[in-house]
Amino acid sequence: MESFHKLVDPRPDVQSGVLDQSAYAASLGGLLSRSKAGKQYWDKKEFDKLTYHTKGLDDALDDIRVRLHEGRGNGFRQIETSFGGGKTHAMIAMYHMCRDWDVIPVVIDGTDMDPSTETVWGEIQRQLDGAITSMDGKVAPGGTEILKLLDRPKPVLILIDEIAHYLDGSKGVSAGASNVDVGESNMAVQTVNFMQKLFSKVGQLPHVCVVISLPDKDQVLEKSYYEQIQRVAGRQRQIITVATDDDIPHIIRRRLFDTDEMIISDRAAGIIRSYVDECIAGKSIPRDEAEAYAERFGATYPFTPDVIDVLYGRWGSYHTFQRTRGALRLLSGVVHSLLKSDRPYITLSDIDLSVDAIRKELTHHAGANTESVISTDITGAGGAIQLGDIGVRVARAIFMYSFPAEHKGATRDDIKRAAFTATDGQPVVGDTLDQLRRSLFFLELADDTMFRFTHNENMNKILDRAKRSVSDADADAMERRILQERAGSKFRRTYVWPDHTTRVDDIAGLQLVIMEQGDIEYCKQLVTNVSPKSGRVNQNALVFVMPSSDGVLSTSIRQLLAIQSIRQRMPLKSEDVGILEKAKKSAEGGIDEGLRQKYTDVYLPNKDDTVRRCSVASSHPDKDRLPFGDVIWKKLVNEFQIAERLDPDLLDGYNGEPEDIFNRMMRTCGERRPASLDVVRAAMTQPAEPPVSDSKNTGNSSLIDDYPPPSAQPPRRPDNPPEEPSIPPVAGVHCTDIMKREKMAVWAGSIFTTLSNTPTTTVRLTVDQKSENTFNVTLDMTGKIPGDVANGIRESISHDGEYREDKSW
Fold first, then answer.
1. What are the start-end ranges of the H helices in 571-725?
2. First to last CA, the chain
3. Cβ atoms 153, 169 nearer than 8 A
4. Domain boundary at 638, 670, 698, which?
5. End of a domain among 218, 243, 268?
6. Which of 158, 132, 118, 161 is nearest to 30 (CA)?
7. In total, how many domains does the chain have?
């Protein structure tokens, strides 16, 4: 789709981005002094280019012309718009028509007058006569004097704007007319008296018309004088409505863009249809409301209808925003910020809060403390930006719907309409919204359906602060407790963070030692000594686990402790209970992941009185949900560092009873590590396999391909072997070993017999004669090799042999 700025032409001042705030601040008084107003207001041609003539404005101009020239109709009019803004602009249009009508204009702008030195009646005479003569007093003139003042050869149009500001300094100026003493009275009282007489006498002058605009009541500081003016005007006035809500988008579009209305509608039709269809599919616009929405979009393009509704209906309720004036200031900046984008239209999510001018315009109305909401949750590195562009777009939309607070925020459908793009559809917006709800600090859910930002920290922020306040000592204590609780049952004993005063028992059985720090020298001390005065006998029985990064584990532990603290010290809303429960489940899951990530390096005693790093424990989730200690055990079994079953041939060279052999293995660093004494006993009770005669080996080196299955059966397992979990297949097995002739023949025959049911496996067995009765054997297998077959081969390799697997399956 085409970008919006290729379909509509932004006016030069919008394109330049260099906009004086006065560009949108229509001032009636500026018509008398060009230095106080932009050319677009005092120059009629420029003004007409930027003015959308509503039906209400055209009707009002015609009625006033008839009054001035034909004397028909009410001589006192109060100008209004249905949305509160645009009144001054309409009065400027009336002023410019005075030349065409051959009418004398009089302009009273309360913001340009000093009540201590200037009066309304004096200013009227100054503009009519060129000087103040008979109207120089501070006491309001009588009705006869007013009639005499306004009785002129030509019709007179008096335009009165911002009178409330003159009366009480309603924009915070202390020197309002109410503060200027006039005898026993004050200038505000005198001005109200004058207005009452003016409104009543103007009916006697058929070629005079007075038009006044009054602000909304909530924009006035001193309401008593405002109410008096309203009462006085109410007796005489005729209300004229120069613009309605339906006129708003046309007024804005005429001011910001130089493209004809009909051309815009034709060019944008396809884009509007595509947008509405996406919203129907995403269920953010009900199907039976789609055509009405599309029709409105045709009038508001390039802005979606929601942009206009939110600015006028919500932000417009701030008296500082000034509706049309505020909307134009903001939207001109938004359009300028998007001139290099490919956006086909402008939604609330396109209001870029990282642009300084845009952000300041909004925070000026919503409050300075809104800056922290934006910087923390929307533009800051730790906020919505973590979810990418779609996260920021969702957060911007919520922000625009959030203020003023009484409007309670945005529905899920509101946000979907604003935030979705061609690459991130409405379902993605919904998912992103749920993620932001769990992570942002000022986002809350109101009435279970409305998302909004507030100035108050939500439970996410409270939880984050509580996490930061958790002491290192408390976090360490909990980590130690978790490690102890999750030691499992495989190792005879488990020691967590032993220090130099802790005794690690000297027993003939495998023990797990979880180190607090990666201190290899201390591990070596534990291998050789039980205490400074006592050496260790069972040096091969220790298994050390060293820590590495603890990011996830530390965060999860602190989160659990923070949740406990919050629940104990503060009352919780139902929404907060749900947030904490989800955070608790997340932290508990993070404990398992954190343990796998932090405690990964496994060290074992070596033959030279050192310890060697033998493996890295898996950082992947354990599908069997084993205790942490049992995960380490399983890893060492898979790496042939712990033997849960021994081939009898592997005990060649060991003499004595099972207890003697087991004790020797526990005492000698680098020896095999049977899981228990029962493993040795089981191996010694298996009957020896008969040798296979007629070995195929001849010469010093031979390559055996397609070895025919011998009659020998693979080694028998002990009766009632322990159940083993299903082991995934591997893609390759590569091993070397030194074997006696008899064992080699049985071993090779066992392999080919076992693989007879897996014809897709390729086997290469290389045998090099080393001496008369010993051979170097190399086995290479590729294909889909059953996991239990690979384990059987691995366990048949001697301690000095080498074994490697390809894990791609």
1. 574-598, 628-638, 658-667, 677-685
2. 45
3. no
4. 638
5. 243
6. 161
7. 4
CA 158, distance to chain mean position in Å, is: 55
Let me know whether 495 and 570 are in one domain: yes
Read off the CATH number of the domain in which 133 is found.
3.40.50.300
Q: Are residues 444 and 590 in the same domain?
A: no
Q: Are residues 196 and 222 in the same domain?
A: yes
What's the CATH code of the domain at 798? 3.30.70
Per DSSP bridges, beta strands 208-213 and 76-81 are parallel
| Residue appearing with tokens 């180190």 | 515
For residue 429, tell me if it sits in a domain: yes
pLDDT digits (tens, 9 = 90+) for 505-564: 999 999 999 999 989 999 999 999 887 778 899 999 999 999 987 778 999 999 999 999
Give the side-chain half-sphere CA count within 13 A for 539. Answer: 22
pLDDT tens track for 277-324 = 999 999 999 999 999 999 999 999 999 999 999 999 999 888 888 788
Domain hosting 288: range is: 260-463
425 and 328 co-located in one domain: yes
SS3 772: coil
* Distance from C-alpha of 141 to C-alpha of 135, rounded to nearest angstrom: 7
Q: Are 119 and 180 in contact (CB under 8 A)?
A: no
Q: Which two tokens stand for residue 199?
A: 């409104």
Residue 48 backbone phi and psi in degrees, to 5: -65, -35
Contact 772, 721 (CB under 8 A): no
Residue 305: count of CB within 10 angstroms of its CB: 19
Answer yes or no: do 401 and 479 share one domain. no
Sheet of 701-705, strands arranged across: 701-705, 762-769, 774-785, 730-740, 802-806
- Do 82 and 230 sit in the same domain of this protein? yes
The answer on 528 and 446 residing in a single domain is no
CA–CA distance, 756 with 761 (Å, rounded to integer): 9
Residues paired with residue 702 on neighbouring β-strands, in sequence order? 767
pLDDT score at 513: 96
Q: Are 670 and 607 in contact (CB under 8 A)?
A: yes
Give the lowest-confidence range in 48-62, 146-160, 215-229.
215-229
Q: Does 436 share its domain with 512?
A: no
What are the structure tokens assigned to 736, written together?
A: 């070397």
208's tokens: 């005079």
Query: Whole-angstrom Cα distance, residue 526 to residue 536?
Result: 8
Q: Which are the contacts of 91, defined by CB distance < 8 A and separation ≥ 6?
A: 28, 79, 159, 161, 211, 213
What pLDDT was estimated at residue 720? 44
Dist. CA 85–CA 693, nearest whole Å? 107
What was the pLDDT predicted at 328? 92
**Which two tokens mark 148?**
């005499």
| DSSP result, 186-210 | EHHHHHHHHHHHHHHHGGG-TTEEE
pLDDT > 80? residue 809: no
Q: Does any domain span residue 5?
A: no
- Provide the β-strand partners of residue 159: 107, 211
What is the distance between the alpha carbons of residues 4 and 303, in angstroms, rounded to a whole number?
Answer: 9
Residue range 326-384, pLDDT digits in tens: 899 999 999 999 999 999 999 999 999 999 999 999 999 999 999 999 999 999 998 99
Tell me if 253 is assigned to some domain.
no
> Tokens 């007058």 sit at which residue?
113
> Does 39 fall in a domain?
no
Task: List the structure tokens of 752.
Answer: 């080919």
- Residue 598 contacts by C-beta under 8 Å, 6 or more apart in sequence? 547, 548, 549, 550, 552, 553
| 413: confidence class by pLDDT, cuts 50, 70, 90 | very high
d(CA 631, CA 608): 28
pLDDT beyond 70 at 430: yes
Are residues 44 and 365 in contact, defined by beta-carbon separation less than 8 angstroms? no
Give me 588's structure tokens. 């508990």
Residue 697: what residue type?
Answer: N
* 8 A C-beta contact, residue 611 and residue 603: yes
- Cα–Cα distance measured from residue 188 to residue 164, given in angstroms and rounded to the nearest whole number: 10
